[in-house]
């Protein structure tokens, strides 16, 4: 959705290189997916740069990312063990006085996890996106095929695509 607005690139800074793996398994995602070094070459060509970072970047890198980013998103699944891993990152962002939001993803349909996680975050005053990305198999199939979820012939693929569209709307329009 972001790439539909303006030239966009995704820099995969995670040691697992999962975004690059996703893009490399298929015909491409419609925007460049590159490592951090190649990202510098593309910086002038893109209005939007999405950076996939390690879960807890080293302090020097974290400080640079905080200064450079217009939007900071902490991604988590809605189960309590995943949410617990956010605690140190939230502390880091708060210490840096850097605004951020939590994005809940891979929420199991018809299960209470997402609603419980939303209540927990709200009760602790942790900012979050109003939209939660539902965890349908279509997203996993898209990663397997190396395409965007909108390009997968699977039940609920459009639902997941619309979830991401709603997130993009929240980013750009509040």
Give an overview of the whole structure:
- The chain is an alpha/beta fold and 174 residues long.
- It has 8 helices and 5 strands.
- The protein has helices at residues 18-24, 36-42, 59-68, 80-84, 86-95, 113-123, 137-145, 157-173, and strands at 8-12, 33-35, 48-52, 73-76, 101-104.
- The protein has a 3-stranded parallel beta sheet. A two-stranded parallel sheet has the order 4-5.
- Helix 1 (18-24) links the parallel strand 1 and strand 2 (33-35).
- The longest helix has 17 residues, at 157-173.
- The two termini are 16 Å apart.
- 22% of the residues are buried.
Write the layout of secondary structure elements.
Layout lengths: L7 E5 L5 H7 L8 E3 H7 L5 E5 L6 H10 L4 E4 L3 H5 L1 H10 L5 E4 L8 H11 L13 H9 L11 H17 L1
Parallel strand pairs: 1-2, 1-3, 4-5
Give the SSE string: EHEHEHEHHEHHH
- How many helices does DSSP assign? 8
Structural class: alpha/beta
Helix content: 40-55%
| Spans of at least 5 consecutive residues with low confidence | none
CA-based gyration radius: 16 Å
Taking the sheet with the most strands, its summary is: 3 strands, parallel
Strand content: 5-15%
Main sheet: strand order = 2-1-3
Number of strands: 5
Envelope shape: globular
N- and C-termini, Cα separation = 16 Å
For the residues shown, what is the average pLDDT? 92
């Amino acid at each position: 959705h972001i790439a539909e607005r303006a030239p966009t690139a995704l820099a995969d800074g995670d040691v697992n290189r999962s975004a690059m793996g996703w893009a490399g398994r298929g015909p491409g995602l419609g925007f460049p997916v590159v490592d951090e070094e190649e990202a510098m070459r593309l910086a002038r060509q893109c209005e939007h740069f999405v950076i996939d970072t390690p879960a807890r970047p080293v302090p020097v890198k974290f400080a640079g990312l905080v200064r450079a980013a217009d939007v900071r998103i902490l991604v988590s699944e809605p189960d309590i063990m995943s949410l617990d891993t956010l605690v140190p990152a939230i502390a880091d962002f708060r210490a840096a006085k850097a605004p951020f939001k939590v994005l809940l993803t891979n929420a199991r349909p018809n299960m209470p996890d997402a609603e419980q996680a939303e209540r927990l975050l709200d009760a602790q005053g942790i900012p979050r996106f109003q939209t939660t990305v539902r965890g349908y198999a279509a997203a996993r199939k898209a990663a397997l095929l190396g395409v965007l979820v909108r390009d997968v012939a699977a039940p609920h693929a459009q639902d997941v695509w619309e979830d991401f569209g709603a997130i993009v709307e929240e980013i750009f329009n509040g």
